[in-house]
Amino acid sequence: MSSKLQVRVISPWFAELKTEDAVFSGGIPPEKADALLCHWAPSPELFTFPRAKAWYCSEPPFNFRALQEGTWPRIRSRLAVHEFLWYDHPDPRFRVPHMTHFGELKINPNSDRIERAIAIVSNSGGPPWRRHPNHTYRNRFVTQPEVDLFGRPGWKNYRATWFSRPGPPLNYRGALPGDWPDGTKREMMARYKVAVCFENMYEPYYFTEKFVEAVFAGCIPVYHAHPTVKESVLEGAYWVDPATYGNAPEATLKAALNTDRELVRRQNEGWLANSLGFRATSAEAVFRRIGEILSNPVG
Hints:
The chain is of the alpha/beta class.
């Protein structure tokens, strides 16, 4: 019989992962599980499970305005402090970063690239009257003429402002095939010199796969870095930040397209090799940390 912690996982995407001390799997039945982990969104089982449990929330509160189990504050109120794991948890002991990659990856060496920028963005953030200001800010960049925008068909009904007629941005190039596995996205991005890879939300410690995929694709990242991210996980990395150019899309993209891509690639290779902050965002490191918390929930 395995001595590893048996963690039942409820997740829309996750299948199975093993660390040195724990097995995380959606196939472990409740009665045989030592602990329960809800990944992304909570489920009713989270509130009734009798042993160690946690909600690993890897998304901003804005995404949880209307879930089956209630709003963000209501969900939080039903969990103990150690049963809520989040990238910006007020208690650093239960602060767990967003996963950015699985396994070992290498920067795409392709040097034959289009002298343009690419942006792969799932959706526009909804109509203007529901769109978060962070989405509006991002959309100003990804709809620029110098950018080829790929995204789901909802972009065909995009409205830049309240008074705009619905229709795709002029630079919209359609959807990627399938459900955009990382490899497909990176292969498309590797055709371009620059990748606009903003987070959907600009929040403390919120850092996802977007910047990492741009780096592995061998692109020059255009990224709006929150100070907490800039001073931690991104230390040593290279990117072009709109904040340097007055948050002006035209000036930012011009600077990125005029940057030496080889110089960027070399610096970001060093970042990938040496950054402890980046290593902490691998799936293996994230679940190792979660396993430690579930085994010793209050330290």
